[in-house]
Amino acid sequence: MTHTRSPRRAVRSATAGAVLAAAVALTSCSGAAPQPGTSPAGRTAWAEGGTLTIALNGTSTGSLDPTLANTLVSVSVIAALCDPLYDESVDGKLVPQLAERPQFSSDRTTATVKIRSGVTFTDGTAMDADAVKQTFERNKTLKGSQRAGDLEIIKDIQVVDPTTLKFVFDGPTSDGAFQDAFVSRAAYPLSPKAFTSMGAEFATHPVCVGGFVLDSQTTDTVTLKRDPAKTYYDQKSLHLDSIVFKVVADPSVRYANLQSGQFDVIQDLSPKDLSTAKSDSSIDVTQYPGRGYVNILLNPKTMAQPLVRKAFAESIDRKAISKAVWEGVYTPACTFIQPQSPMADPKNQACIPYDPAQAKKDLAAAGVTTPVKVVLEYSSTPERSQLATLVQAMAKQTGFEVSLKPTDTASVLADTRAGRNDAGINSYTGGADPISNLMLTPGAFLNSYPWNDDRVNALYDKILVTPDPAQAKPLYDQIQEILNTEVPVVYIAHNALIHGIKKAVKGLNLTASDGFSAMHAGFAK
After folding, report:
1. 199 CB neighbour count, 10 Å cutoff
2. Which tens digit of pLDDT belongs to each residue from 432-446?
3. Where are the alpha helices (DSSP H) in 142-273?
4. Nearest to 290 by CA among 68, 5, 90, 509
5. Spatial CA neighbour of 183 closest among 288, 32, 21
């Protein structure tokens, strides 16, 4: 699963804090949500030491350079390695970590940010204002940076003193626009000494502010060990000797190893195992609505006619897919707007209906020769493979010949951007504000082929400066009406976040984006 943010300016509307209402309490450690029943870290009797083993859903560990990383696996690993300037709570609120809350100028074109003093990177060098500035500049300019889009709003960065920076923006900047730029991997301070001297090798030994360092990495395993130099400023909050992340694509294997005790935490518990896991007294199960979606991007060059793309959408039975692949736990999706969002209404939640007969009529009206050949690329996890096979069978009934191309997540993204397929199955973890989930405007990370519509771009820009939900909702309705006509993407399902955690594990923080923050986790006595 890809984890990213919209690179364009996003005004966090009044809806942002209300989008996610998870039934879990917030923790002060990182602003994320621990599993139900977890004792607050300050009152837990810790069994100091030990190794926490976490199974992540994916196909490879990927890059651990925060500037270059672009998968959900890397999100969870980096969160255990590095502290950010700011984090985001499960309900979408800004949570200060290595920096205090920003102080905006009266015209909101600048923000003054104070950072913690006396903090060092794991290489022993100081995390000061100049180091933070150099990190942001690297994120903006490094070739291949996945953070550059996040930081478009920043025009200049000024060091005021060793613990103070002034960020100059390209225009008046809302709290939400600041949050989109300064939360997560774009705001992990990195050691300039390390990334300038190591170059590309920095990904194999990332140096940031944290209690752990990278011990080893293979395609499917990352091991972190407690920093022997003890550079972390809050040593008392660290309890583990090491953290092992295992990348396991098959959810049944993840769950079987959680049951056997090989894994302490598993990400993305399969809905098929949900009832069994809930009846297991040794496991805590967390389940709450996600902010993201699973979709199929359609190539506007090879599937050039909107009627052909519409016919492909009409061939897909979302309800049947949700039941077969996710036991009905994932809800059928028609749009980028989460159903729990205050912006959701019947107009913008309306699907292109499952209608095989109409699909055949649309292909006939388009004047194309059937079967229409489509290369569908996807990450070769069991879930995605099942989804792709179902889409193939459904589309065959209406006049499409879908060839399946299983690969890994990074290849799906690369091939889609290069136009080496006709359709690609993707997913997005989502943001608190639905406009950040659109991902169909110029420069948006997941607008891979890309697709461009001046009408949508204009509505998007108008929403960015419309914080009033009552005024914004009709604009969302107009965007969805265009998407249902042009069909650059077929939304399949809105996700649910389900994780399995051994009851002995405490202090593990879960985020609304589906990642883990395990730096301060441990085992209770």
Report:
1. 8
2. 678 878 989 887 767
3. 175-182, 192-198, 251-260
4. 90
5. 32
